[in-house]
Task: structure prediction
Amino acid sequence: MDDGAKEERNPAWWGRRAWSLLSVVRARAPLVQCITNLVSMDIAANALLAAGASPAMVHSLREVPDFTPRCDAVYVNVGTLSEDWLPSMRAAASAGRPWVLDPVAAAASGFRMEACLELIALWPTVVRGNASEILALAARSVAASSSFKGADSLHESVDALEAAKALALSSGAVVAVSGAVDFITNGEQVVGASNGVPMMQKITATGCAVTALIAAFVAVEPSDALVAAACALAIFGLAGEIGMESSKGPASLRMHLIDALYCLDEETVTSRVKIALQP
Ligand SMILES: Nc1ncnc2c1ncn2[C@@H]1O[C@H](COP(=O)(O)OP(=O)(O)OP(=O)(O)O)[C@@H](O)[C@H]1O
Ligand SMILES: Cc1ncsc1CCO
Ligand SMILES: [Mg+2]
Result:
């Protein structure tokens, strides 16, 4: 594949890796089935298209047997979960494709927590959540999140680092916690990606969109989900940084972020991606 195993993973290595994966996504246009929440559908599909991937918001259980095996990756997001969607999520997650879970507001209810834990038992390649979601999932408890804010995080990503490692070890998934620094871990190694701007939290479903992007990167690099997830998070954050340069607030950032993702070039990615292995 590449010489990463022999080479020191310094910032330049990560920059080249991020550019290489984005280039492969653009060249191969991986098909990503998205069973995602109603709020996120537009921004997730547009982020995937801007990055060069091919989104398909296909969520009927009756379509899973025909459609999911032909996808390069599956993205499951429980943000607007209802009982009738859960069978499709289970079936798509079980179809043998690399798949990524976004456990939106995992602590909102016992129903949602049980659904997330059940899905995590189906071997997701990556779980990406905000700090409050990852803390709740690692504790397997709705009650553990005494202070709870629905889909938004009340914690810093660093607060959930140990929880992320524990969840990665118990589930076998790579776990990513987003925030000012995005942490990505397989339970042993921890990588930090520090691109992004705080205003991204003021656009609904940017987290959902970056999880969709992780699915596209995992589709082209299924054997190294840690690297794929870190590069997707850094690339999305970098698009936010560039987008912010022309934005007045959340609505214009949403537009400029998608434009910036579409326009990223080699020089920008290799010089501005900020990823580092944590000590
Ligand atoms: N303080 C911050 N500084 C820089 N980037 C940030 C900050 N907070 C979040 N981000 C970035 O914003 C994006 C969304 O992350 P966030 O943690 O807000 O997700 P989320 O809470 O799951 O969002 P949602 O549920 O609305 O989709 C990620 O790319 C993350 O890196
Ligand atoms: C606001 C909101 N509510 C359910 S899903 C969602 C999008 C952000 O996760
Ligand atoms: Mg979220």
User: Anything to note?
Assistant: The beta strands are 31-35, 54-56, 73-77, 99-102, 126-130, 174-178, 182-185, 190-193, 275-277. The first helix runs from residue 11 to 28. The mean pLDDT is 95. The chain has one domain: 11-277.
